[in-house]
Amino acid sequence: MATPKSQIPLRIKGQTTCINHKGRQLEFYCEKCQELVCPKCLSSIHKTHPVSELSEITPQKEPDIKNFIDRTEKNDLVQIGKYITTTDILLKDNTSTFEKLSQKLKMQTDKLKQELDMLTAQTLSLFHKMEEDNTKLIQKYKQDLEMYEKHLKQQIQECKAALQRGSHLQIYDAYCEIHSPTYSLPVEPVLGTANFTPNESPQDNLKKALGKVITSGQGQTLSDQDRSVSTSDDLEQPSTQQRSGAKVKKAVTTYKLLPQTKVMKRWKSLFGISSICPTTDGQVWTQYYNTLNLLDSTGKVIQEVKHNVGINDISLSPTTHTLWVCDRDNNITELVSGRLLHRFSTMKDPWGICITASNHVIVGMTKHISKFTTDGL
């Protein structure tokens, strides 16, 4: 029965003994199978195969090795050196490009702020002018009403006097005066009106005013094949770069800003929450005073951990997926198997903690920020 290919033993680089016959030295080369064999293989596995002594074929391989060394040193290593130099330029250009973009964005933002302030000032000035005009109209209307009131009171006194002791002529004049009034009730003025309705969703308009932002992840990197050094299969052939130039393999990643935040799910907690930290499996860690709670997507408590002192902040490691805690006794602890293990202490009160992707611990303290490494913890 034939041995499956996946189970055929392979000789390890540098091994001098046969993989099929233990203790037998490799002295021959099977030209058909292109592998080293021992004398016993000649009468068994490689029987009837054309073979040569190892000492006879190695001189034929030496020129190829020398050519590889020479070509690699003169071509491939030089090209790799150029790639390394290019990366330094790319890093510098990358920093410069985004610094310019950031500056341009800030300048546009400042310009919009100035224009918005100017528009606000113009609108406020309009409001103030309308307020003054309305004030004058109202004050004039009030004065006219007061004069009309004064006239009516005087007219009433004259009519009373005429009825009490006036002559027939005076009574007649009083009658004519009240039916042919000199003064009439002032007409209420028409005031200027204004209204302001705030835009409840200004994001779209702000984006248009700010300008168009286009981002893409079309990073151009040479493929592994294009960057690889020559192998024994192409010893006599020019490298890929020499024949057709450096090929480009594009890995496209598009970054798109969300038009508006969206609430995926909402539930009310049965207890206070001071800090919150989501996990990678849809759950969430919360903290309130000295209690840690692991909740599911419905807000149900899955796990509760009590600390002996008050907790200031929590953070989940993106690498180990363990929860880190900073407390009011200047302790930095890690939650392992349901227990908070002390890792180190800080000189000042730690009020914020963040675990980076490289598993470093960033602690925000009173008027101070420090970075610690978790290596060896």
Helical content band:
25-40%
How much of the sequence lies in strands comes to: 15-25%
> Can you count the beta strands?
16
How does the overall form come out from the CA principal axes?
Answer: elongated
Features:
4-stranded antiparallel sheet, disordered N terminus, 5 helices, 377 residues, alpha+beta
What can be said about this structure in brief?
The protein is of the alpha+beta class and 377 residues long. 37% of the residues lie in helices and 20% in strands.
Question: How would you explain this protein's 3D organization?
Answer:
By secondary structure, the chain is of the alpha+beta class. The protein is built from five helices and 16 strands. The protein is 37% helix and 20% strand. It has a four-stranded antiparallel beta sheet, with no helix packed on it. A four-stranded antiparallel beta sheet has the order 10-11-12-13, with no helix packed on it. A three-stranded antiparallel beta sheet has the order 2-1-3. The longest helix has 112 residues, at 54-165. It starts with 27 loop residues before the first strand and ends with a strand.
Topology (elements, then pairings):
Blueprint (H helix, E strand, L loop, with lengths): L27 E3 L4 E3 L13 E3 H112 L2 H12 L23 H8 L8 E3 L2 H4 L12 H5 L4 E3 L23 E4 L5 E5 L2 E5 L5 E6 L4 E6 L6 E5 L3 E6 L2 E7 L4 E6 L4 E6 L2 E6 L4
Antiparallel strand pairs: 1-2, 1-3, 4-5, 6-7, 7-8, 8-9, 10-11, 11-12, 12-13, 14-15, 15-16
